[in-house]
Write a structure and sequence with these properties.
By secondary structure, the protein is mainly alpha-helical. The protein is built from 21 helices and four strands.
Length: 503
Amino acid sequence: MAVGTMVSLGLYFLVMLGIGWYGYKEADTSVEGYMLGGRKLGPAVTALSAGASDMSGWMLMGLPGAMYVAGISAAWIAIGLTIGAFLNYILVAPRLRVYTEIANNAITLPDYFENRFADNSRMLRVIASVVIVIFFTLYTSSGVVAGGKLFESSFNLSYELGLYVTAGVVVAYTLIGGFMAVSMTDFVQGCIMFISLILVPVVVVTELGGLSQANQVINNIDPAMFDLFTDAASGTTLSFIGILSLLAWGFGYFGQPHIIVRFMAIRSVKAVPVARRIGMSWMILSITGALMTGLYGLAYITQQPDVTIDPETIFIYLSQILFHPLIGGFLLAAILAAIMSTISSQLLVTSSSLTSDFYQIFLRKDASEGELVIAGRVSVVLVAAVAIGLAYDRDSTILSLVSNAWAGFGAAFGPLVLFSLFSRNMTRAAAFAGMITGAATVLLWIYLPVQIEGQSLSQWMYEIVPGFVLSSIAIVVVSKFTQPRESVQATFARFEDALHQQR
């Protein structure tokens, strides 16, 4: 590997560790300080940290690869995610920021569910925590795997070394700096991803002789590449169910703990509109850059004799071929940034749940603030160790499970979050019903040996659609036949008053 590339990556790692140390020095020593940054995140950091932790390697590898193979029909998922992210800022962000503080200053999503419904049995909290710990440990492992494969394919280093370097740097800044360090590093990583996804497609199009020439090359390859309703890979027309399934990815946003926790930490409701404008601008431009990288990367590859690549590595290939090694190292750092930003967010959410929802509740009810922060740091290390252990098995089925985690979180938590923030009459029983129905529907939809039109249920329709719909129906029906506690309704009234005052 070129010295310039190594220098760029070395500087990137040092910057991440430096931010982690700064976050440690600046953060307060309370549990709220470690887990939520003291609820004082600025709008820019909120927006870019939410975006960076959301997109992961999908933005720089998965989406360009899909565009490379299927043409602009791959943009449907990007459209769905953009709409979902926008609605998340409108519907969830301001209300969750206020309600989590009203609900006994909840610092985790399970904590919020328990306080919102006055669940003295604590089963809501436990079930939600189990879902978070299991899925996010698997999710984290998949990110570590991506880091290992990146080091192996791009740097000719061992896969195992890649696992430890990726996880080690993330654990270091998450361990010492907590939520503030994770959010600040996510902000920097979001900036790196943004610059890279603008720079690469612009240079590729320039190399091809301009936009019109590049479009002509694509048209010569296959005119279907420009058809939004045709999958160019198979030559088939997308069905209504197929388009709905791709758009439905946007439903997942309402239930992703590592994303909506940023809304709990923003400094005020009045900062949400600014965060929304920054976050949506970043997302739209970055997704457009990723789509263009895949599409015009295909045009570039077809003009290179005897070159064949894995479509998902098109960003890596272009960054190494078209740029000076110093710039190429910066662009590879963008992929690491995408991977690390998601891993760090998932590590922190999982450790927060282990600390607040298990350790404090069942083991040390009278634990001091300092002890809980230490427990949170130990949890980060433990979750990372398990994730690395799982990542050693490259063929593990966890990767297929992780591909469904977005749907699992979206269906189990999405309707629950939305109804809890908007419905005064939602009950604790309805919360149980919605969460269990959503999660169970997703799992059954994936694993039931049933076919429709020769396809498995999951291939025929993305599992988040039936999961989200049935979870919502369960919440409405059960709420209709059960009665919310008076104290819960009184808290909801206080929440609405506080929301009105803060807007």
